[in-house]
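Mods, move this if it's the wrong board.
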Amino acid sequence: MLVLTATVQRLARLFTHRPLEYLQLRSGYSHQALARAHFLLLLLAVLVTFFLLPAAVFSTLEETWSYLDAFYFCFISLCTIGLGDYVPGEQPGQKLRALYKVSVTVYLLLGLMAVLLVLQTFHKAADLHGLTDLLLLPADQHSDQEPILESEGTPEELAPGAKPPPASAQLNTGSRANYSSISR
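Not the wrong board. Structure tokens:
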């Protein structure tokens, strides 16, 4: 998976970043509009190339599969759900079975990279449009935090001239808080 991710990051530069920069310089459109159009074109290309066309090929090569069964296999496999209820190349007497299995493996690897590329492009577009800010929690972290244990004060907070408790007091079991002392 690490190799797939690294490969897709390199492909993202080639298929996402460079075309957007080139189109922005040449056309003068805003980066957001170009990113939206680019994402839709990339999504359409991946849908056709890795879902619709392979489903037609699988429904032709696998005698017992309908087009819907083949599309289901493509979707389940490339979304990494992989239920295993449809497995290509398992029919008895299939011609060139070993080559067919290797071809399916290559298709799955390329398809996984394409789906990951679409997801990364969507994430970048969502960042560009500010959609991730809608889904993230606000940055105010102190409003919901309460101290779990009531402290008796740190040595800096003690009254002048007062002695801090001895270090051995922290080791006594009676001085430690237990679960029943935590306010709910």
